[in-house]
Structure formats: structure tokens, C-alpha cells
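[recover] target loaded
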């Protein structure tokens, strides 16, 4: 495992618990398909940005909404774990960027998420 992928042991437990809970909820939970965390109309609009998509079944945006919800929750958890490692209680942009850098699955976001820019110190000539 790459050194930057290292988490403290309790962090692995948090992530494992999250995924176990998600799988259990999907398999055994009661699903109310009329209540959504994300707006289905927006998801459908994003889906239609692909020119090849002509029609979308009623179930597709619901499945995408659940997938997006899980994705956002996991990324937020990973960013929060980074904030805790830095002994902070406030989630920052850099925490999200670091969470993305720590796992290959999020590589597709590297160009989207702003990185911390190095501050260039210029010396003035008098």
C-alpha cells in the first residue's frame, strides 16, 4: 500500500462500518422511493447532457440519486477523517483534496477539485 494511503486503524473501522451499514440498508432496509436526498429533476437533467441519452426510465434517476448519496457521504467521511488527523473540527477544501489524493478510485476528480496553491512570495526591489 502506498504510504499516502495510510489511515489510522480506527479510521479503517469507520469506513468498514459505513460500507457494512450501506450494504445492510440496501439489502434489508425499507425503501421509500418518494423521498430523496438529491433532486431527481437535477439528476435527470445531468443524465440528459449526454447526447446519446434519448429516454430515461423512472427508476434510473432514483438509482443515480442513491449512488450519488453514497458517493458524497463516503468522500465527506474521508475528508472528515483527514481533518481529524490534522486535529481540526472544521472541514476544509484541502481535506477534500487530500481525501481524493489518498484513494485511486477518486482519480477522476483530481482535475476538478482545486488544489492548495503554493503562495509565491515576491520580493520588491527598492
Amino acid at each position: 500500500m502506498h504510504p499516502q494511503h495510510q489511515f489510522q486503524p480506527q479510521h479503517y473501522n469507520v469506513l468498514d462500518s459505513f460500507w457494512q451499514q450501506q450494504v445492510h440498508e440496501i439489502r434489508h432496509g425499507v425503501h421509500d422511493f418518494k423521498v430523496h436526498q438529491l433532486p431527481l429533476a437535477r439528476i435527470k437533467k445531468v443524465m440528459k447532457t449526454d447526447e446519446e441519452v434519448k429516454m430515461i426510465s423512472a427508476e434510473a434517476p432514483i438509482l443515480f440519486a442513491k449512488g450519488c448519496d453514497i458517493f458524497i457521504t463516503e468522500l465527506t467521511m474521508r475528508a472528515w477523517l483527514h481533518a481529524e488527523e490534522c486535529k481540526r473540527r472544521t472541514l476544509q477544501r484541502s481535506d477534500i483534496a487530500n481525501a481524493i489524493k489518498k484513494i485511486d478510485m477518486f482519480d477522476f476528480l483530481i482535475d476538478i477539485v482545486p488544489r492548495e496553491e503554493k503562495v509565491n512570495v515576491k520580493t520588491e526591489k527598492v
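[recover] notes: The chain has four helices and no strands.
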